[in-house]
Write a structure and sequence with these properties.
Structural class: alpha/beta
Distance between the termini: 55 Å
Strand content: 15-25%
Number of helices: 9
CATH architecture of the largest domain: 3-Layer(aba) Sandwich
Largest sheet: 6 strands, parallel
Number of domains: 2
Length: 242
């Protein structure tokens, strides 16, 4: 079978095999639970290319590619090109890099990329596994910003923080238990970590943070949407570097 009506999906064993041979950027391989046999070789090829493999219930895959005989497998293609981490790291005295620790909602990721472009951030770092990637929903929400903002997809967020620190960056984590952002100067080369929806920053990534900052909450709720929090703190870093 050829591509699904959604141009970001390639479904069916032959089509998936051919797409894995191409130089197209791939977000992930979806495999229906319980699928075996010939699919095992496809899984091996995906892993060899560094493509994340996600096992999901067959019903979910059916719904995702409702008009195609997917034969238990489908590829989600990237809607934009990924950059290498080295392309994002800046040699300037001031810089802003946004680091997302398993932000799963594509609408949040798209909004963060859009704000990263507006604020002049050098790029966004996301994990290969456990978070949203550059799919068509992200590209649509970003309103064209995916064409301008460099997004690096790394195997390990904690290791990426270490690499940034070696390049002179200070790592700031956003957490409701952190210091008031107005009492913390986010100056120089800033790596801003935004945690996942509902869970926040993971313990190992939090340990990499030089500072943990919070946004004052004066209303009845105690948290903000991830993309809103990211936007506020991006502009805090921009203002501190004026």
């Amino acid at each position: 079978m050829s591509e699904n009506r959604d141009e970001s999906i390639v479904a069916g064993r032959n089509s998936v095999n051919e797409a894995l041979k191409s130089d197209r950027e791939i977000e992930c391989l979806l495999v229906a639970n319980g699928t075996g046999g010939a699919v095992n070789s496809i899984i091996a090829k995906a892993k060899q290319r560094g493509v994340p493999v996600r096992f999901i219930p067959k019903q979910k895959l059916d719904a995702r590619v409702s008009n195609v005989n997917h034969q238990g497998v489908a590829l989600v293609m990237c809607a934009a090109r990924y950059s290498a981490l080295e392309e994002i790291v800046s040699g300037n005295e001031s810089s802003l890099v946004v680091i997302l620790d398993k932000v799963e909602d594509p609408h949040n990721l798209g909004a963060i990329i859009r704000t990263a472009d507006a604020s002049g951030a050098d790029g966004v770092i996301i994990p290969k596994r456990g978070g949203a990637g550059l799919n068509t929903t992200v590209a649509k929400v970003a309103c064209g910003a995916c064409e301008h903002v460099k997004v690096a997809r790394v195997a390990n967020i904690a290791s990426a923080c270490d690499e940034l620190k070696e390049r002179g960056y200070w790592i700031y984590g956003a957490d409701m238990d952190g210091s008031d952002m107005f009492s913390t100067e986010m100056k120089g080369k800033v790596g801003l970590v935004i945690g996942s929806e509902g869970f926040g920053i993971s313990r190992i990534v939090r340990e990499k943070c030089d500072f943990v900052v919070s946004i004052p909450m004066n209303g009845k709720i105690n948290s903000l949407n991830a993309s809103v929090a990211a936007g506020i703190l991006m502009y805090k870093a921009v203002a501190d570097n004026k």
